[in-house]
Write a structure and sequence with these properties.
alpha/beta, Rossmann fold, 8-stranded mixed beta sheet, 20 helices
Length: about 600
């Protein structure tokens, strides 16, 4: 009766094989394995929990524990084998004492059998000796085992099995139960970074909550950890550490790896070597580090710009042909018609056009043509000037070019800058070349002094770009237009961290996804991000598109149509005037004949 229920439960847990922790006779083990094999499940018996060490970490592993008298197998199980990667099923009258102190993320169920099955037979005989033919009214209940670090293990309704299969009835309650840690205390390891009691009057916690502090990346990470612990109904305590990722004990990476803290308050980039020590749970902050300097203008060899898009050029050709046709139709003399296209081209090129047609319509057409060409030239000239003002900056683009340039270098004094780039030997040839050529004993400078060096125009200062943005009010608009960057660490996403494969990793990831779904994470980042302001000249440095000149084209077309209307009126007026002259001439002739007679 039990075996089909056990198989269905493990299939629901998506496991491919099962370890059975029980000390049975070989005959009972063979019978048990045979019954499982009939239902398509692989089973391995073991009387020693060390067999779990052979389980791969990339797949879910089923573990069936069958309690026996005087058995202490659970006491010998490594604590890591109670993580969510191991799907446990406990067959016991009550929750074993050893399960009250296992991991929070454990995934365990216990078989709740209401019939007396443990009295007259051994458990092995009862399980193996049952037939696969089951009464349709039979129900076997499975309860969820929830383990809290302070309250211990508790048993809750979860699912039942019948001949129709496994019916999970309380899975949502199971999930919600694990997302509420019941005010458990989490330790947040945050690197002190730029904080110092000499420079800031207040505690480290006040420093992290101070909106005027310039260390936005660290404040973003700490703020995100506060949102996380609030989302899972926990409490937090700040644990200051000296370094971010140093291998020394007093670093975020070290305390998380040793489980001395549950959350890292300083966001870190994902690197392969760090994955051995920490898990990355929530993406939070973009970091970009490099040298900043003021560039000079380039030579005239880079003065070519393309202010107009292809659509604008084609529209200019179309409106030019339209105006030429209108000019030709509005011309009354043969020589004016022949010179219509040349007149349009000459005016387009802002040359003197002497072929202005006689008559109101011809003059109106020429006025429309002149205004249109004038505005097109104005667009073109404005686009060229603004593009040249916003581009045309020269200077090194790579670290090797910076090493060969006239610029001195300096850097912000930061532990990750020291330990990852400038105080260690790297395999980055360009960086090593730069260090050999330019690095001096005065390389590390305070950011306030570094900004002054950048303003002087002779030094490239190395820091996180976002840190420099707070000081851009000291730069003139011309300086901002000249500002150039050479990356050492291109823009990359940094993540909040926790203990690698820790017992809290799953709920932190779930809470982090919830922060993004609700918009809380993006709101936190937007409150702290300061973007580089563009120089005013760069605001005009955009190519003119078709839609920019669309109103001009529409008005010009209307003007051309109006010239045709004026031509029609002019023709009607000319015919009317000619008719009147004929009538007057005929009347004069009649008067003359009368007088002669």
């Amino acid at each position: 009766m039990f075996i089909p229920a056990l198989v269905d439960l493990f299939k629901y847990k998506v496991v491919g094989s099962i370890f059975v922790l029980a000390c049975w006779s070989p005959i009972d083990e063979v019978k048990f394995v045979k019954e499982f094999s009939r239902l398509g499940m692989s089973v391995t018996f073991a009387c020693d929990p060390k067999i779990l060490d052979k389980s791969p970490d990339i797949n879910f592993q089923g573990v069936l524990y069958i309690e026996q008298n005087n058995s202490n197998l659970l006491d010998k199980v490594n604590r890591k084998h109670f993580s969510h990667w191991y799907k446990w099923l406990i067959i016991s009258k009550e929750i074993p004492d050893a399960l009250h102190a296992v991991r929070y993320d454990s995934d365990m169920a216990i078989l709740r059998e209401e019939i007396e099955v443990f009295d007259n037979e051994t458990l092995s005989e009862k399980i193996v000796g049952t037939s696969l033919t089951v009464d349709p009214a039979t129900k076997i209940f499975f309860d969820d085992i929830f383990v809290h670090p302070e309250a211990g293990a508790t048993q809750h309704n979860w699912a039942y099995w019948s001949p129709r299969g496994l019916q999970v009835t309380r899975d949502w309650q199971r999930i919600r139960r694990r997302m509420d840690v019941q005010k458990y205390l989490f330790r947040i390891a945050a690197p002190v970074a730029h904080y110092s009691e000499d420079t800031y009057k207040g505690s480290f916690a006040e420093y992290l909550e101070d909106m005027t502090v310039l260390d936005s990346g660290l404040r973003c990470g700490f703020g995100a950890t506060l949102l996380l612990i609030e989302a899972v109904n926990a409490t937090g305590v700040l644990m200051p550490v000296r370094y971010w990722v140093s291998e020394e004990k007093n670093s975020t990476q070290a305390v998380l790896s040793s489980e001395e803290a549950e959350l890292g308050g300083g966001p870190l980039r994902i690197l392969k070597r760090r994955m051995e020590f920490v898990d990355f749970i929530v993406p939070m902050w973009f970091i970009s580090v490099g040298f900043t300097y003021l560039a000079e203008r380039e030579s005239s060899s880079n003065m070519y710009v393309e202010p107009f898009t292809a659509g604008v050029w084609w529209s200019c050709l179309a409106i030019g042909i339209t105006l030429a046709i209108a000019q030709r139709m509005a011309s009354r003399k043969r020589e004016d018609k022949d010179g219509a296209f040349i007149a349009v081209l000459a005016t387009w090129l802002q040359q003197d056009a002497s072929a202005v047609s006689d008559g109101l319509s011809g003059r109106w057409t020429f006025i429309v043509l002149s205004v249109c060409s004038m505005l097109v030239h104005a667009y073109y000239t404005s686009a060229i000037v603004s593009a040249l003002m916003s581009t045309g900056r020269g200077g090194p683009k790579t670290l090797r070019e910076l090493a060969d340039s006239r610029y001195a270098i300096a850097s912000e004094d930061h532990d990750f800058i020291r330990d990852a780039m400038f105080n260690v030997q790297t395999n980055w040839d360009e960086l090593e070349y730069l260090k050999k050529r330019k690095m001096t004993s005065k390389f590390y400078q305070d950011i306030h002094y570094g900004v002054q060096l950048v303003r002087q125009g002779y030094t490239a200062y190395h820091a996180e770009y976002h840190q420099l943005y707070h000081y851009l009010y000291k730069f003139s608009d011309i300086d901002i237009c000249k500002m150039q960057h050479v990356d050492t660490i291109p823009e990359a996403m940094t993540w909040l961290t926790t203990t690698v494969r820790g017992q809290w990793t799953n709920i932190f990831k779930s809470a982090g996804a919830w922060l993004y779904e609700t918009g809380l994470a993006r709101r936190l980042v937007s409150q702290l991000q300061i973007k580089l302001p563009p120089c005013r000249a760069a605001l005009l440095a955009e190519r003119v598109t078709f839609w920019d000149v669309a109103p001009l084209l529409a008005l010009t077309t209307l003007g051309a149509i109006a010239s045709l209307g004026l031509l029609g009126l002019e023709i009607i007026f000319a015919k009317w005037a000619k008719k009147d002259s004929r009538v007057l001439q005929m009347s004069n002739s009649e008067v003359s004949l009368i007088v002669i007679e």
